[in-house]
Amino acid sequence: MTRTSAEGGPTGFRRDRLTWLAYVVLAWFAYLQGAPGLVITHLRDELHLSYSAGGLHVAAFAAGSLTAGFIAARLERTVGRRTLFWSAAALMGAGTIALTAGHAAAVTIASMLVMGVGGGLLLVAIQAALVDHHGRRSAVALTEANVAASIAYVVLIVALSLSAVLHGGWRVALLASLVVPALAWWTNRRLAIDAPPPSQVPQGRLPGVFWIAGAMLVCTTAAEWCVTAWGATFVQGAAHVSSDVAVTLMVGYFGGVLAGRVVGSRLARRYEPAHLLAVALVVSVVGFAVLWPATVPAQALLGLSLLGIGLGNLFPMALSVTVALAPGRAALASGRAVSMTSLAVLLAPLTVGALADATSLKAALGVVPVVLVLAAAGLTVVQRARARGPRTPAGAPGALREGELDRGEGEAERDRAESERTT
After folding, report:
1. Cα separation of 39 and 170, whole Å?
2. Are 41 and 236 in contact (CB under 8 A)?
3. Helix or strand or coil: residue 105?
4. Number of domains, the chain
5. Which of 235, 287, 388, 414 has a 20 to 30 A CA-CA distance from 78?
6. Chain centroid to CA 185: how far?
7. What backbone torsions phi and psi does residue 271 show, to the nearest 5 degrees?
8. Within the chain, what is the greatest distance between any pair of CA atoms?
9. CA distance 367 to 375
């Protein structure tokens, strides 16, 4: 692996109030984002849904996020990042309430769509805020944010399992989460969540290599959501266990995601995200090789755990690689990244569901290693493009000094001012 420069070391990264707010709200978003794939088993039993109809719930959430990714940058310019942040959280909460109140497929799918729009807007605002706020150290912030998301996934499993034991039902577990954004807003309602002035945002199109990295991001997200959406259902059939036990076994997957991201967040301070992404792809393939032939709960649990460790690092590392290709344009790059990943979340569960209806769920999940290989190919192309990419000559108008690439403009200006004072 290649170590990053000393400027990206741990001493330069500080978690302030805005950073912690972003982590907490992203964790709440992840809690609800992970819910569709887990409550599908219950909705299929309650509403007598096919695999394809069950997949529509995850797809509806993704379709809403896809739409949000395209409109987020314009909305941010119109209403401001702070208003967008809290309005998106309120919209996601409203969709959650509607989901728990719905007892027909049309209502639950529409509720997922509303949750997706609100969640997608919220995700764009959070990612852009972290990138703008932490500059070149945004890889650390994004990885730590996804550690918080992983903790939320584990909490979701525990909450669903506990509600089943207490006969409270999955709806109680979802509604209880609404306390989080309410408290977050009340304690941070005056906190500034600002975007850079439009005059400081570079204009023009996103570079071509960004779209290659975006395709890689689509593949990694597709692999993750094939398992997130259908992992519990697969284990239920493969290991011959009940839906509640299958959901409980998914703690191995989400626990693996948490462990992987904790380790990844530490390694991101020392190594390039692209190299960590390559390692995560290899671990993901190994985990799938263990899970796919599983016929007993123990082997399924081991496979899910290894898959979680690998897949858990794919999104934050791939996102860091992708957004870094458009320095200074965090909102636009983050919005496009959310749209592309939402497209993957939209298509992957639907594709697996349709293939499962035509063949079997085990055969349908064969798409996972395929997209992982495609992601590895995309990463190779991106790294080669970065290696031979043109650099702005030193001293040219508007050129950044060495070490300022991928940093926020404010941070670069502060360093320049400090340099002038010391001289």
Report:
1. 7
2. yes
3. helix
4. 1
5. 414
6. 22
7. -125, 155
8. 74
9. 12
Enumerate residues 6+ apart whose C-beta is below 8 A from 212: 378, 381, 382, 385
What CATH number did the domain enclosing 93 receive? 1.20.1250.20
In a domain, 423, yes or no: no
Q: Which residue has the tokens 């290693």?
A: 369
| Phi, psi torsion values for 3, nearest 5 degrees | -75, 150
* Cα within 13 Å of Cα(90), Cβ side: 8
pLDDT band (50, 70, 90) for residue 402: very low
* Rg, Å, the chain Cα set: 21
Question: Which domain range does residue 122 map to?
Answer: 15-195+207-388
CB-side neighbour CA atoms (13 Å) of 168: 14
Tens-digit pLDDT profile for residues 340-360: 887 887 788 778 888 988 888
How many CA atoms, within 13 angstroms, populate the side-chain half-sphere of residue 58? 33
Tell me the range of 33-42, 191-200, 313-322 where mean pLDDT is highest: 313-322
Closest CA to 21 of 141, 174, 158, 135: 141
Q: Could you tell me if residue 2 is inside a domain?
A: no
CA 218 from chain center: how many Å?
11
Instruction: Dig out the tokens for 354 from the structure.
Output: 């349709």
4 belongs to a structural domain:
no
Residue 415 CA to chain centroid, in angstroms? 32
Mean pLDDT across 48-64: 80
Assigned token pair, 60:
């509806």
The helix/strand/coil state of 66 is helix
Helix (H, G, I), strand (E, B) or coil at 271: strand
Question: What distance, in Å, lies between the first and last C-alpha atoms of the chain?
Answer: 36
Which residue intervals of 292-394 are DSSP H helices?
297-323, 330-358, 361-364, 367-388
**Domain presence at residue 120:** yes
Closest CA to 22 of 167, 109, 147: 147
- Higher pLDDT among residues 188 and 386, named by residue: 188
